[in-house]
UniProtKB/TrEMBL annotation:
Ranges that cross the membrane: none
Source species: Faecalibacterium prausnitzii L2-6
Protein's recorded name: Uncharacterized conserved protein, contains S4-like domain
CDD domains assigned to the protein according to its UniProt record, in alphabetical order: S4
Keywords: RNA-binding
Amino acid sequence: MARSIDTQQSAVRGFVPAQNDEERFLMRHVEDLARAAFGRGIARYSAFLSDREQQLAQAALNRAGAPEESCRFEGGWPDAERRVLCLEPEDCCPASPVCCVRLRCRALAGAQLPVHKDYLGSLMGLELRREALGDIVLPPEEPGVAYLFALEPAAALICQELRSVGRTEVTAQQLALDEVPEFAQAERRLQTATVSSLRLDAVLAAMLRCSRGMAAELVAAGRVEINHLPVSSAHAPVYESDVFTVRGKGRFRLTALPGKSKKDRQIIEFFQY
């Protein structure tokens, strides 16, 4: 596809303040953690946070004046999406609450192995709260093996109680974080399309390969989120690096806006998770 040269920097969505009582409570909680940690010199940790919650937590830390060098997010592996906020003042004794549980399936040869939603469903069946659980990694080089990152009490419960995922028997073993292998980078196929404008319905239609009318219907039905926030307008503007979650269809990231095509349409680059 021919592209024009476009040196103008793409617009990026700015920070979106807390949108509801739950998000405002999270920010107040993070400020309380910061006051306790840096007022008393004792390490403090949050539960697992989504990327949206991490943005809110960082804003709360900035508001509280927390020292940047003593604050970090830890998910148990380098590319973690869900992470724990770690507040570790100088001279404290840090002890990360993140643990890893390795699950091995006892499946017959040729049997269908559990997928991500099967593992998550079985964990919810143990009445674990979502904030106690981090990422679930299924390395393609280890079929039948899953690595679950969790807070320490949840990890202990998983090892004691989880015996099957779906109809497949599993064995659980807790690992130290330095025993977790390096996972291969996920291969994501970058796709390119052109759109008439950077409106949600146009971009969503290109990603889903459907009509703009169908994309608008998905938005109206409440099935679309941008950066984990519900969106109600099909005309909403979209920005580079936005993440689109479409219930029942998948999740997509708009990675780049390279410029205009010869027909003066906006080029977008994206991938599906």
